[in-house]
UniProtKB/TrEMBL annotation:
This is ATP synthase subunit a. InterPro entries: ATP_syn_F0_a_bact/chloroplast, ATP_synth_F0_asu, ATP_synth_F0_asu_AS, F0_ATP_A_sf. It comes from Stenomitos frigidus ULC18. The gene is atpB. SUPFAM superfamilies: F1F0 ATP synthase subunit A. Coiled coil: none annotated.
Length: 251
């Protein structure tokens, strides 16, 4: 188990434990409790923000309504840039959900002092700090990727695996496996590395020196959410475009 436990005035400001977790046993199923707890908090924050933004819609938006409308426009532009004018609308909810969940999860790890909340085992952290979460998100992208291609071409979609020659079948299958793997490891590795760097800096030089690194971490966390959502849109676009149908160029 790898553990960083720097303290200041007996309060842990930054700590990270790898390999030590809180599990819930439900029958024969073992559930990663700490990831579920923070994931529910992130989902709750997004639901509350959505309800607050749509509770009393104003013609001239302000406050939380203005923020959520900006987020919606950003996601729509992101989906349109990857999928094109004709294809993007059905995929806005999926890509938007990915982006907002990852964005809020990443920032929760950087802004919320989860370490002050004691658990029987392990500790709370950003959901994207756990490889299980990032792999699950990447698999959702894979399912969306296959659904997009299958809905466009039917069973003929799988003909791409033997084109232009069946000899390339293993390579085509390997490519589809590497896409979710690259998504999951990129997100997990960057978020984990950021928290490790902050933890080590707090251990060596408490309080002031880590602040610029924490600000940089907020920026890189936002970039990681953007990269994940952008690649998800690109993979879906590839599945829709690669079957002889005319498709608009990226906006």
């Amino acid at each position: 188990m790898l553990s960083f436990l720097p303290t200041l005035n007996a309060f842990p400001l930054a700590s990270l434990e790898v390999g030590h977790h809180l599990y819930w046993q439900i029958g024969n199923l073992k559930i990663h409790g700490q990831v579920f707890l923070v994931s529910w908090i992130v989902i709750g924050v997004l639901l509350i923000a959505s309800i607050a933004a749509t509770r009393n819609i104003q013609r001239v938006p302000k406050g939380i309504q203005n923020l959520m409308e900006y987020a919606l426009e950003f996601v729509r532009d992101l989906a349109k840039s990857q999928l094109g004018e004709k294809e993007y609308r059905p995929w806005v909810p999926f890509i938007g959900t990915l982006f907002l969940f990852i964005f809020v999860s990443n920032w929760s790890g950087a802004l919320v002092p989860w370490k002050l909340i004691k658990l029987p085992e392990g500790e709370l952290a950003a959901p994207t700090n756990d490889i299980n979460t990032t792999v699950a998100l990447a698999l959702l992208v894979s399912l969306a990727y296959f659904y997009a291609g299958f809905s466009r071409k039917g069973l003929g979609y799988f003909a791409k695996y033997v084109q232009p020659t069946p000899i390339l079948l293993p390579i085509a299958i390997l490519e589809d496996f590497t896409k979710p793997l690259s998504l999951s490891f990129r997100l997990f590795g960057n978020i984990l590395a950021d928290e490790l760097v902050v933890a080590v800096l707090v251990l060596l030089v408490p309080l002031f020196v880590p602040l610029p690194v924490m600000l940089l971490g907020l920026f890189t966390s936002a970039i990681q959410a953007l990269v994940f959502a952008t690649l998800a849109g690109a993979y879906i676009h590839e599945a829709l475009e690669g079957h002889g149908d005319e498709h608009e160029e990226h906006a």
